[in-house]
Amino acid sequence: xxxxxxxxxxxxxxxxxxxxxxxxxxxxxxxxxxxxxxxxxxxxxxxxxxxxxxxxxxxxxxxxxxxxxxxxxxxxxxxxxxxxxxxxxxxxxxxxxxxxxxxxxxxxxxxxxxxxxxxxxxxxxxxxxxxxxxxxxxxxxxxxxxxxxxxxxxxxxxxxxxxxxxxxxxxxxxxxxxxxxxxxxxxxxxxxxxxxxxxxxxxxxxxxxxxxxxxxxxxxxxxxx
Length: 225
What we know:
Layout: E1 5-14, H1 23-37, E2 44-54, E3 57-65, H2 68-79, E4 87-97, E5 121-129, H3 131-135, H4 138-153, E6 158-164, E7 173-179, H5 182-192, E8 201-203, E9 208-212, H6 215-222
Antiparallel strand pairs: 1-3, 1-4, 2-3, 2-9, 5-7, 5-8, 5-9, 6-7
């Protein structure tokens, strides 16, 4: 990949007072939000419902852009448009997509989650490694990651994306998984807990799990009807 691309997971929470507005006002403001989410052609965005799945979070915008500015402009547009004016940013994770450091020949599991059909579920979280990890030799780190990837490749129903966050966010990486099989994903995570790579993990929370839905369907679930 010759050019870097920027990815963002933007988690928004809706003020409960929005639901107490008249029905026609809720519908109008929801339509404005729906239009704002897809307004910027240079930003590819998929929408996920987190209603009742994470305290304070109702909507997850999963976006890809050629630079940081379009992500900023899209967020600004969403937050000033109709229903968006009732929303608060609860989490924002940024990362840069670059060629993987430890994978020589990426499989379909490691390709961009912005390509192909969407799976039912998206799981995203920030991830940080320890200082001791970075002080290991490249060969030692590769050996540990080989074990890590061997486990992951057994779960072919789970796709993943690793974006680099060094210098642009608090964590080292933005990690995302897509799957139609949440129990299989849970088993994958459980098995990874028992690998050597776990020793170097400093942070891998909060975990946001979203259900893929069109934005108009999410607004209806929130009360735009």
